[in-house]
Specification:
The chain is mainly beta. Helices cover 4% and strands 39% of the residues. The model is unreliable at 1-17, 142-147 and 222-226 (pLDDT under 50).
Length: 347
Amino acid sequence: MDYSYRLIVVATAVLVLGTRLEAAIEIDGKMGDWAPAITYEVPTALREQALTPFGQVNRLAVAHDDEFLYFRVDFAEARPFADSKQAAFKPKYWGNRRYIELDVDGDSKVDYVTTMHPGKRKGLNNCYLVDHRDGKPKTYLWYEGHKQWSGIRGHYAADGKSVEIRVPRLPLKITTKLIGIRVQMQIRDGLKGDNAWHNMRYPTDTTFYLYDLEKGARIEAGASAAKRSITMRPTKTPPVLDGMLNDAAWQTAAPLTGFITNRGAQAATMKTEASVTFDTTHLYIGVRAFDKDLPGLVTKATVAEPSRVYGDDVIEIFIDHHHDQASFLHLGVNAIGTTAAQLVVVR
């Protein structure tokens, strides 16, 4: 399904055209050749929700040529350690893993992730790629047969407030002209924070920036400062879990509205009705999802193989039960009722 309900209200979707690069961007940390790139500015209200100042992102810049995708991330605060010391991470002080997450097949799920690699004498001025497409992450440090590069490259600026990364296009299984891009900041901050791992994503946990590989165009997701909230009403008679949504509890349950796509944060193309209620022991969420191609729904997961649910057309629910943006309950159910659940904790 292409729906997600989020607390942050996305208000705009803007198309901006750029151009394909005529000369490659040098990944050297000097940041002097990014003028042709297009940028996604992160609204102040959005970045200030980060639980550590080191997790705040000011902007993302994206460019491409025939061989590479290029990414630059500008941070609100510089890294507190030099590259050589960053490689020797001390758990009680500070550490970070900064990623670019890519959706290259249009299914609104992460296919590839880049992360900075602490190499000898290089600190974090290195980078590698992880393939997440089949649920079994595979790491690529280089691509055989491509002589122009010896691996994915990344380099921090001298002031520690920016990083630039290049990703070769050839090994990526790109099947759509609109790729989804998300910046993920996984930070443990013992200097200005609570010395615990926190996960922050831009534009949000459930949406991607869109980049058009044919036109060099962006669709930028903006966000308002307001948070969307609902007033939940308890039920004295819990609903029967039979998929019918005709119980009295659903008639008075609080409705969830404002669904958007998680690729580009645009208005949902098909209707979704949802509501939530609770009693003393359970939280109840009812969803009615409309689809113009019901016979085309993918339902390969069976009761015996619940872990395959997330590869189907599925309704997914994310519950941040500690309200810490670091741990959450992830639920999924497909059209034939196969369910899966996992507790995700960022370490």
